[in-house]
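in:
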């Protein structure tokens, strides 16, 4: 039997999946906490902070494809991808500590440049790890449903990382005093988790199936054109760009909603993410089952409906919102987001296999790089628009929960939190209607 068509050992799935814990932790912590930290504690204006984050994301997006191609062509005793797990993990952990220790680090003229430099370093570490990492499962199995099972371990790790960043992180910040220095101390604790996750992933994937580098007849431009000819892949890029654009605004503006609109502390934000991350984690076997029964596209539609209901419900939130309402929103959002993340990642692996069948070339790194480039573009545009929206609406910078804000600022926060994420996710579903890879096609091409 073809070894790549058989069930992967649990140890291999766990070893690979745990790599997402640290990167998810870093991604979630910077996505949820960074904009407000820069605005309310470091003293960077909301619009400028959004621009700086966006510039770093654009840089990240521009380098992803290059890192993917480099990993496709790397030869080492550790394989093509695994050396990048070590290097990316170290750079990510170090830069994460620096990112949340910027208060008082420079004068007003130099501070924005220092912030940008550290943001670029952090983006480099994330790309070094994440692009080769995301290419690995394309080599590990050819089975259509096994790809979903393997990816469920990653989504579970993402949920745990998000839980540590958004529940434990805010609790630690409160425990350490709730000020700027508390953010820095918390960053040291979380950086240890980032580094350990990367080391465990490097060790845990030593026996994972891996493909050797194949000759690439096409140059860089030719490879990009060939990837553009992979219609399912291009459609999936559109789906992810639309969904993640809304998600980036949702995440960036959430601390402002809890503190400035609802009058709650980071503890309330932590409760929300506790339930969201927990449901993302425990729902993975359910989504794997639904995928086998309904197919990946129809399961994605179902996840979209659940997610949009949860996001829309923030329109009726009020100051002093009851904890049970926050818990319920978190649970429903986690159920929907768990499906969206799993199915999007699983379909990416299908398009990688489809590309190999079309071209005969192993270039999972290239496709993973393009895919993560789209992710970064989404997360570069979202914070910038959020920052400009807050600045234009008259948002008043303050670290105090419940500080007075004009009605225009509260309206801008709610719009970024509800309308944009729902519309962008639905647009992604409309694009997915043209996606044509299913279990039958995968079986015929295997």
């Amino acid at each position: 039997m073809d070894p790549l068509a058989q069930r992967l050992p649990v140890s291999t799935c766990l070893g690979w999946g745990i790599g997402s814990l640290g990167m998810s932790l870093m991604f979630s912590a910077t996505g949820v906490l960074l904009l407000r930290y820069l605005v309310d504690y470091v003293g960077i204006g909301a619009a400028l902070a959004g621009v700086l984050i966006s510039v770093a994301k654009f840089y990240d997006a521009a380098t992803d494809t290059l890192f993917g191609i480099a990993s496709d062509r790397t030869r080492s005793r550790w394989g093509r991808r695994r050396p990048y797990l070590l290097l990316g993990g170290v750079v990510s952990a170090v830069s994460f500590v620096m990112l949340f220790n910027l208060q008082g680090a420079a004068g007003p003229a130099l501070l924005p440049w220092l912030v940008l430099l550290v943001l670029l370093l952090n983006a480099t570490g994330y790309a070094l790890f994440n692009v080769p990492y995301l290419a690995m499962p394309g080599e590990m199995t050819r089975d259509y449903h096994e790809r979903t099972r393997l990816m469920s371990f990653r989504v579970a790790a993402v949920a745990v990382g998000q839980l540590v960043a958004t529940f434990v992180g805010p609790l630690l910040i409160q425990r350490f005093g709730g000020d700027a220095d508390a953010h820095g101390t918390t960053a040291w604790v979380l950086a240890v988790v980032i580094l350990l996750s990367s080391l465990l992933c490097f060790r845990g994937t030593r026996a994972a199936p891996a493909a050797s580098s194949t000759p690439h007849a096409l140059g860089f431009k030719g490879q990009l054109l060939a990837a553009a000819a992979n219609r399912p892949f291009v459609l999936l890029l559109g789906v992810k760009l639309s969904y993640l654009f809304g998600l980036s605004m949702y995440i960036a503006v959430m601390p402002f909603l809890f503190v400035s609109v609802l009058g709650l502390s980071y503890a309330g934000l932590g409760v929300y993410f506790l339930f969201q991350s927990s449901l993302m984690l425990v729902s993975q076997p359910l989504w794997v089952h639904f995928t086998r029964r309904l197919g990946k596209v129809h399961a994605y539609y179902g996840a979209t409906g659940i997610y949009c209901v949860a996001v829309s419900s923030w329109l009726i939130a009020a100051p002093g919102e009851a904890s049970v309402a926050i818990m319920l929103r978190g649970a429903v959002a986690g159920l929907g987001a768990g499906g969206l993340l799993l199915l999007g990642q699983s379909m990416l692996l299908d398009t990688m296999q489809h590309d190999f069948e079309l071209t005969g070339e192993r270039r999972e790194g290239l496709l993973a790089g393009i895919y993560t480039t789209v992710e970064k573009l989404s997360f570069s545009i979202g914070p910038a628009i959020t920052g400009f929206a807050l600045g234009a609406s008259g948002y008043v910078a303050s670290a105090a929960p419940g500080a007075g804000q004009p009605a225009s600022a509260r309206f801008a926060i709610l719009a970024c939190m509800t309308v944009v994420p729902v519309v962008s996710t639905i647009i992604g579903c409309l694009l997915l209607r043209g996606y044509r890879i299913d279990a039958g096609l995968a079986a015929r091409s295997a």
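note: The domain at 12-207+220-445 is CATH 1.20.1250.20 (Growth Hormone; Chain: A;).
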